[in-house]
């Protein structure tokens, strides 16, 4: 029943977007009374949270599976494989991508329970850079003086075993990866980039170089 509720909610997301998601509408489509559905999801926000965690986990699994196929390759190749997996998942699940990386849902604040799933792709990218650093194959990017304190803070929180310059570059590349995917998914590349796949591979490789992978 939980799976059926979430599947109907995803259908409504695709049709009308997250702002119009309604527990009553979901219950009606499933032939349930609202009070019965509330036993599974006490509020719309609880249902949204479940959908968000599912989306992050699905994306994370896709990226981890792609990385496993090239786990013994050079760091840049591993990085590109993860990036292409993110893009492939987004193109196959546009509404779910929009739910987790699109416009925030008014009135909704994601709880801490979403963090482990949301972190899966980021942790995978950190591991790639960490392996390169251990092998002395990482060219640590330089930092401006004004960014040093923030890079140190991020490094202590996200990857204390990496140089702050690498962590700052990682955060920048991580956000740019999703920017690339979002531009393609939401139409900003229309009449600008026609050959999307080779362009993406070029751009995500440039991101790897920016992090210091060679």
Automatic annotation (TrEMBL):
Alphabetic keyword roster: DNA-binding, Transcription, Transcription regulation
SUPFAM superfamilies for the chain: Homeodomain-like, Tetracyclin repressor-like, C-terminal domain
Residue spans binding DNA: 22-41
InterPro entries: Homeodomain-like_sf (IPR009057), HTH-type_TetR-like_transc_reg (IPR050109), HTH_TetR (IPR001647), MT1864/Rv1816-like_C (IPR025996), Tet_transcr_reg_TetR-rel_C_sf (IPR036271)
Domain of life: Bacteria
HTH tetR-type domain segment(s): 1-59
Protein name: TetR family transcriptional regulator
Record organism: Streptomyces asoensis
Highest classification ranks of the organism: Bacteria, Bacillati, Actinomycetota, Actinomycetes, Kitasatosporales
């Amino acid at each position: 029943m939980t799976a059926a509720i979430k599947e109907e909610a995803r259908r409504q997301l695709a049709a009308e977007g997250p702002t119009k998601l309604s527990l009553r509408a979901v219950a009606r489509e499933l032939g349930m009374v609202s009070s019965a559905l509330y036993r599974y999801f006490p509020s719309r926000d609880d249902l949204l949270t479940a959908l968000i965690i599912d989306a992050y986990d699905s994306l994370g699994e896709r990226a981890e599976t792609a990385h496993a196929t090239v786990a013994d390759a050079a760091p840049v190749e591993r990085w590109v494989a993860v990036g292409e997996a993110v893009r492939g998942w987004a193109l196959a699940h546009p509404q779910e991508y929009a739910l987790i990386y699109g416009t925030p849902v008014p009135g909704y604040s994601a709880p801490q329970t979403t963090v482990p799933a949301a972190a899966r792709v980021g942790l995978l990218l950190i591991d790639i850079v960490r392996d390169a650093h251990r092998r002395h194959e990482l060219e640590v990017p330089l930092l401006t003086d004004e960014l040093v304190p923030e890079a140190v803070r991020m490094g202590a929180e996200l990857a204390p075993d990496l140089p702050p310059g690498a962590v700052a570059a990682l955060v920048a590349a991580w956000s740019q990866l999703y920017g690339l995917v979002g531009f393609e998914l939401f139409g900003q590349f229309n009449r600008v980039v026609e050959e999307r796949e080779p362009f993406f591979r070029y751009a995500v490789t440039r991101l790897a170089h920016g992090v210091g992978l060679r």
